[in-house]
Amino acid sequence: MGEGIRRAALLAAIGFALGACGVVPVPFLSEHRGLTPHPTFKIGAPYTVKGITYYPHIDYAYDQTGMASWYGEAFQGQYTANGEVYDLNQLTAAHTTLPLPSIVEVVNLVNNRALQIRVNDRGPFAKGRIIDLSRRAAQLLGFERNGMTRVRVRVLKDESLRAEALAQRGIISDSENPVATFASVPEIAAIQTAATPAPRFFVEAPQYHVAAGPVSTQEDADRLRSQMIGSGYRDARIVID
Asked: For the chain, what is the total number of helices (H) and then of strands (E)?
């Protein structure tokens, strides 16, 4: 039984309701279990969990809304489905069918916060949930305490292709992609209006580009977003830089 399926079985058994930056070559030792990551690019064969069969496949047009949950300590330091090591302080996620790794943009539709996140695991296996995030991602998206939130998940094709190429070389991330490196609360945030990965503020008209920020705290970012909405930019949202 593969690592992803073992993880699924554990999820079912305990009824879990909660669910790049410098080059990181192999080996990289987990501080929790001493495991050595062996990242690979993986699509995988169809598999069945709790009576439902999932069919992993490449889908660069993936763009779905649904519920997100998060998973944390119970899986800390364990292998993910593609051979990486789960760290609840990194920006990673589990998905039932996307290739591993994939890079997705996740937007919390409750507060409009957005993050780019690395998908490197399988799950969630609960009805109605479309993605299972790390605890750090849940913190930055503002739903750690609630446990779940409604999100939009969109695959970023170019970023995913780069992550795939690196994984095929046994590399987790590179210096041009700060997707999976946050370990503490960021000090800078920016505002943007469109569902794009760039950390800027965009007006709908394509010839205009308006930036607001950076700001030093999350509270200031929320306040600035409210001001922008009041000024007529209804799609303004917070993006962590």
From this structure: 4, 10
Lowest mean pLDDT among 101-110, 120-129, 165-174, 204-213: 204-213
Model's pTM, two decimal places?
0.63
Per-residue buried b or exposed e for 105-144, using 16+ beta carbons within 10 Å of the residue's own CB:
bbbbeeebbbbbbbbbbbbbbbeebbbbbbbbbbbbbbbb
Question: Same domain for 53 and 154?
Answer: yes
Query: Which segment, 25-39, 160-174, 181-195, 217-231, is predicted with the most confidence on average?
Result: 160-174
Rg, the chain, Cα only? 18
Q: State the Cα angle at 220 between 216 and 108, rounded to 5°.
A: 100
**Domain with 217 in it:** 189-240
CA separation for the pair 114, 10 (Å, rounded):
29
Domains held by the chain: number: 2
Same domain, yes or no, for 166 and 123? yes
Q: Are residues 73 and 125 in the same domain?
A: yes
Q: Is 196 exposed, middle or buried (0-12, 13-18, 19+ CB in 10 A)?
A: middle
CA nearest to 94, candidates 19, 23, 149 = 19
Q: Which amino acid is present at 87?
A: D
Q: How far apart are the first and last CA of the chain?
A: 38
Question: When comparing pLDDT for 164 and 199, which is higher?
Answer: 164
Q: Are residues 89 and 135 in the same domain?
A: yes
